[in-house]
Every structure is written in structure tokens, then in C-alpha cells.
Amino acid sequence: MAQKRVGVIGFPVEHSLSPIMHNAAFKALGMDDEWLYDAMSIPPDILRYGIREPKNHGYIGINVTIPHKQAIMEYVRPDEKARAIGAVNTIDFRTNLGTNTDADGLIDDLKANNVALEGERVLVLGAGGASRAGVYGLVREGAEVAIVNRTKSRAENLVSELQKTAGINDVAVMTLDESSEWGMSLIVNCTSVGLHPNITQSPWINGVPFPDEITVYDMVYRPANTAFMQQCVAHGGRAIGGLGMLVRQGAIAFELWTGVKPPIDVMFDALREVLEKREG
Ligand code: ATR
Question: What is the pTM of this model?
Fold first, then answer.
């Protein structure tokens, strides 16, 4: 019987892939006698009480997912990253610290794929929570970042928020048309466009010339090869799906709780296996 518990809270949370990858890592490391990762569904209206449950039951820590990432900040001590990004996705109950591993998960995966960031022009598509983490991480790595979003005012709000929370200046907001001539080497899709089941949709609208020979990182990982990634490859570019970001944001949390670096490949394989089954 596992005594050391970790898990994820969300609503709904039944389809979360986090238990699969974390438990696969525990097993591969021979830690599964002691450690268990499970998913807890907590409706937003009872979050204040719901958050006490895992804490009172002796959980070491939890991940936090949709829709609680912002609201949970009230009940923990957000660290610098969480405050900058405006969201908590990982809690350590031993210290009650809340952090955010999304930005580092993205950056770790870009680096693992040898994508250059320092001094590079990087276009971010989207202006939600995922985008805010992405922009924060990319700017910290020395990239010159611009944002394109369907709703331009939301991108402008994001820029002014990041200015307040992280002291980040010089992030441009542009239209897709303008961006096609900006000369970026990398585009990071932080929108949900193209996500299963809308697999024929792309955030790069038809009629706007697709830049040649660039790199696309698509945070969407289902399907594994999105329409946006296909457009990029058809224009001589390189496309990377977002599964690695999911794995690496989880791996950072895993190490925080356990003090052990998890086997990244094992986590990847476990996810690919279930995703292939779900696609089929
Ligand atoms: P998250 O927290 O995961 O980032 P979100 O806050 O709902 O999620 O943000 C979703 C992003 O995808 C937004 O940038 C959204 O654009 P709007 O701000 O204009 O809503 C973008 N998005 C979602 N569906 C879209 C679509 N069909 N076309 C273009 N952008 C879309």
C-alpha cells in the first residue's frame, strides 16, 4: 500500500494523462510500492474546501489543472514563477508553496530538441494561460517575442499583465499578416486550434503566406501530427508536437516532490501508448 501520495486536481479530471506518466515513472524506478499518483475531481465552487482534502490526507503535493490554476493561488504561497505566470500548476504541501512548471516544461523540451532561443525571433500564437507561460519562458531565454491572437485586445492585456507581474517589456502584438513578414525562426502554438476532434483546423489561416523553413512547436499533442505541423513541414520547416512539454512539466513536479529525476523516455512511452489507443 502506497504511503506517499501525489496527484492532480481538476474538473473534470478523469481524462488527465498525468496519473499514467507519473505512475509509469514510479514503477520504472521501483518506487511504486511507496508512491502513488491519482486524480481528484474537485468542482470549482468547493475549491476552498476541496483543496484541504489531499492536504489532510497526507498528500506530499499535487498538480493543478483546468479550471483551478488561477483560483488556487489564493490558497497557497505562489513562488516567483507562479506569480509571473499568474497560475499555479504544482503544489508542495510540505511548504505550501505553489509553483508553475509549464514555462520550464516548454523550454526544457525546446532545448531537448536543440531549438535555438537566445536572440531569436519567436512568434507565440494565443493569449490564454498557456501563452502567458510560454511568453514568460521564452523571454527569460533571451528570445524576442511577438504575440498573435484572434482577439487582439486579449494579447494586449497579456502583455500588460506580464509587464506588471514579471517586469517583461518589449513583447509585440501583431496580426497574422504582419507576422508572416516578421522573420521569426520559431512559432509556438499556444491556442487549442487543431486539437482533437477538430484535426483539420490550423491557427495559421489559409491565405496568409506560410513562412518557409521555420520551426513550429505545437502545444497541441493530440493528434501527434497536427494540421499546423503539416503546413510547416510542407513549407520546408521542422515541426515538434507538444507531448514533450506535458512530460517535462510533469517531470519537474516529480523531482520537486520525490527528489528523484524521473525517466523521461518511460513517461513518453506510457503516454504514446494510451494516446495511440484513444486515437484508434
Ligand atoms: P489556455 O489557458 O489553455 O491557454 P484559453 O485561455 O482558453 O486556454 O486560451 C485559448 C487560446 O486559444 C486563446 O488565445 C484563444 O483565442 P481568443 O483569445 O481569441 O479566444 C485561442 N483560440 C481558441 N479557439 C480558437 C479558434 N477557433 N481560432 C483562433 N484562436 C482560437
Answer: 0.97
